[in-house]
Write a structure and sequence with these properties.
The chain is built from three helices and twelve strands. The chain has about 170 residues and is α+β, with helices and mostly antiparallel strands. The longest helix is centred in the C-terminal third of the chain and has 8 residues, at about 160-165. About 25% of the residues are buried. It binds S-adenosylmethionine and zinc ion.
Length: about 170
């Protein structure tokens, strides 16, 4: 059971464009939203002219999905208040700590992240890393260790050797 889309709203964000905001407080560990991964993007089902690549997410086995609203509007923060974990095959945006009503919902895009995209972060957090490399294992090692419990099951399986090396440090 998640709080669901009625517990959040999409509006302008100081981080970037549109963001997702809490309409009520959430407890740490509470499932806020399900991510709908049903719109797969592949050669047979490419993005249309109305779709934006930035609303895509990159999953196990190089699967690409185009997220719908509201989850497509969740911005990145280097000090996130949620993370994504898969339960019974459904990805859940889950509160990492208590979240107050009206707070922007964010997660760290590098958790479960791969690839070699480098981009400039404007999250405004005290601990902002400013220049972000998309791959989890490019994070500073202390942060990899901090985030280790938050890695999703599929990512642990896909990057098992690197996860094991991190666990043994
Ligand atoms: C899934 S969308 C998030 C929603 C986006 N704000 C919108 O209005 O469509 C991801 C895109 O938002 C932007 N973005 C998200 N978090 C950001 C951040 N902390 N700093 C800079 N840009 C960010 C980047 O352009 C990124 O490719
Ligand atoms: Zn940042």
């Amino acid at each position: 059971m998640t709080a669901g889309p009625s517990a959040v709203e999409v509006r302008s964000s100081e981080i970037d464009g549109q963001g997702v905001f809490a309409k009520r407080a959430f407890r740490s560990g509470e499932a806020i939203l399900e991510i709908d991964d049903s719109r797969v993007v592949d050669d047979l089902h490419p993005l249309t002219a109305d779709d934006l690549a930035r609303h895509c997410d990159y999953l196990a086995g190089a699967k690409v999905v185009l997220m719908p609203s509201p989850e497509r509007h969740i911005n990145h923060s280097c000090d996130p208040n949620t993370f994504v974990r898969t339960v019974a095959g459904i990805r859940l945006v889950t509160a990492l700590r208590e979240i107050a009503a009206h707070e922007e919902i964010t997660y760290d895009y590098c958790i479960n992240g791969s690839g070699d995209t480098v981009w400039a972060c404007r999250c405004g957090a005290f601990r902002c890393r400013h220049e972000i490399h998309s791959d989890f294992f490019h994070l500073p090692v202390e942060l990899q260790r901090e985030y280790l419990p938050l890695l999703d099951t599929w990512f642990r399986e896909e990057r098992a050797a690197e996860v094991a090396r991190l666990q043994n440090l």
